[in-house]
## 1
Amino acid sequence: MRTLRGWLKRLTGFFRKDHRDRDLSAEMETHLAMHVEDNLRAGMTQQSAKREALMKLGGVEQTKELYRERQSARS
């Protein structure tokens, strides 16, 4: 019974991981867009606004990877 439960947990975890990754990507894009908007309102050009927003977030992919590592440590 424990073996079956373990397999089911792994299987559902696999599908949840895809869902979590999509949610995380969407959330990061939202934060990036908000920072870009703030920078544009402050008078920056589109290119400068995006560059500053990316620097402020500390790298979108790095942040995602950090989040994934923390989530896997919890499991």
Note: The mean pLDDT is 81.
## 2
Amino acid sequence: MHLPYKVLIVEDDNAMAQMCAKLIRRQGHSALIAGSCQDALTIVRATGDVDAVLSDVQMPEMTGLELLAHLREFSAALPVILMTGYTTADGSNAAMSLGATDYISKPFDADTLIGSLERAMRVRATL
């Protein structure tokens, strides 16, 4: 699916958030940035106008896994990609069991991020 889509980036590291947004926008898509999981939930619940969520796992007040669980209550079809600098098999398994679309390790390159988003949008298109 190459139609323009809107990605919500949930990341407390502004440099990482801006880098992800730049990569996504370079592909012709739009990107919103939420600096906290609570801000992300507010955006999704208020507008419902995002096509995918890209979230860090390690966040200050709520983990990306907790965010994923809350997002699943809102929408089972919303693709959620988790990214982490602390990859473990347990973390990956937990993310996938909660319904994450993908789990990518930091640092990642542009192809990894865009490939993950494209796969997520193809899966969403079949739901």
Note: DSSP finds five helices and five strands in the chain.
## 3
Amino acid sequence: MISVCIPTWGVNGDGGSLISELLSSLVLQTFTNFEVVISDHSNDTLVFDAMSLYKGKLDINYITNHKDIGNSPSNVNNTIRNAKGDIIKIMFQDDLFVDIDALNKIDKAFSDVKCQWLVTGCNHTSDGVNFDREMVPRWNPDILIGINTISSPSVLSFRNNNPIFFDESLVMLMDVEYYHRLYLDYGLPTIISDPLISNRIHSNQISSNYGEDINKEVVYVKNKHSW
């Protein structure tokens, strides 16, 4: 079974509509042996109300999460802790699946016992209708310091056996530091070049509202990994 792990928050009033689009794209999946794990940091009921409309269509484990409100890595980690599937598929609430065979392709890739983690192709959207800028992930030795040639965590899947958790001290580098640790433990990822998901570009995304000096995170990850 695949656990589609979705950390959510209010997104300044757009949380309900965004999770609805994502869940709608999950309903269309040809692969059906999956659960949806939602850990919700919202301070309103919009995500819950939207999610409730899919209860009869999807196997959803909804968790209200009052811990570390506003800390995205912490909320992702809570979905991982509550995942029951053999495979964990991370998915941010503002992104969506653009291939109805996405989960099937991921499941087939993990039928190879050598596959411990994988990343997939993606594209980008601002409205959930028009898609552009396709990206095929690739590894590079400087990924730890922010040269992100893989993309967002929504392209990521990994086995749920002694899973690694995201570093809750990071924001902008939470994904690349995580990829680096997966690489240290398991080597290079399996790559599915097909664009299976779309990253949404919008004014409320975390990267658009980051007001700190990213060099502080670069120094932190360098010291953490003696890089």
Note: Residues 52 and 60 are 9 Å apart (CA to CA).
